[in-house]
Amino acid sequence: MRSPQPLPPVTVSEHDGVRYLHLGSVWVQGAMRLRKPQHVELDYVQRMLAALLWLDPDALAGARAVQLGLGAGALTRFTAQQLGMATTAVEINPEVIAANQQWFRLPARAELVCGDAADWLAQAAPARVRLLHVDLYDEEAAAPVLDSEGFYAACRAVLEPGGVMAVNLFGRHASFAASVARIAAAFGAGQVWSLRPTREGNTVVVAGREVAVPAREVLAARAATIEARWGPLGLPARKWLRMVRPYTPESPTA
Q1: How many other CB atoms are there within 10 angstroms of residue 243's CB atom?
Q2: What is the DSSP letter of 51?
Q3: Which of 60, 85, 133, 163 is surrounded by the fewest CB atoms within 10 Å?
Q4: pTM for the whole thing?
Q5: Range list of β-strands (E), the chain
Q6: H helix runs in 13-163, sequence order
Q7: Given a cut of 90, is residue 231 above it in pLDDT?
């Protein structure tokens, strides 16, 4: 458990038809397009859903999805409403939960847990989660607030065999290489992949628990299926497939 720290105030802004969530700073912690709330607005959040390339999209309904860090609820809305998954979001800041309930159209079926992500992992049943998203940044948005090998090992423990985790990291930050190395130590180097950084520098890392990577033609067909279903909501899956690179210890971003 982390030492108690004052939680930043939550503010909401709107610009050009998009509502944004902030944590006591100008940094954007999440966004929702007002006329299309199911659209995944931010590029890096879209890439968090690239983890779907490692899963069968026809076998997700009823499986469990967990988000560690709620943001503006884009991933929670998507896994609960678009994928039909039993969805849990864990968020330490009660103001973020309240803002989501008031301003960001969270689905009623999603389970919201107000608490520390590390504490939730410690008590969670093992091997029950198919899709885990980790996006844990504070108001300074500099480096993840939970980033140890033990933390990533706990993330792996809650995944079922064949389950995947997607983590948001800053590829341009000095901590990136060390963060990916910790993920590889927890999951195994052969179970870790990364996408190219976004223009803002966010790099999504995907890690699997005993994932059997499909053949290239299967991945291509899966990407086409994802894009046909959810491309209008911001999921350019065929583009993601061109971005994916396996982790290597010598060159984590290659």
Answers
A1: 16
A2: G
A3: 60
A4: 0.93
A5: 10-15, 18-23, 28-33, 64-68, 86-91, 111-114, 129-134, 159-170, 192-194, 202-208, 245-246
A6: 43-48, 74-77, 94-103, 117-123, 149-158
A7: yes
Contact 78, 46 (CB under 8 A): no
Q: In 3-state terms, what secondary structure has residue 4?
A: coil
Separation in Å, CA 19 to CA 31, 32, 104, 109:
5, 5, 8, 22
Give the separation between CA 55 and CA 192, rounded to whole angstroms: 15
**Separation of alpha carbons 88 and 70, rounded Å:** 10
User: Where do the structural domains in the chain lie, given as residue ranges?
Assistant: 42-246
Backbone angles phi and psi of 41, in degrees to 5: -80, -45
Tokens at residue 200, please? 């803002």
How do residues 172-187 score in pLDDT, each as one tens digit?
Answer: 666 889 999 999 999 9
Q: What is the largest CA-CA distance in the chain?
A: 50
Topology adopted by domain 42-246: Rossmann fold (3.40.50)
pLDDT of residue 112: 97
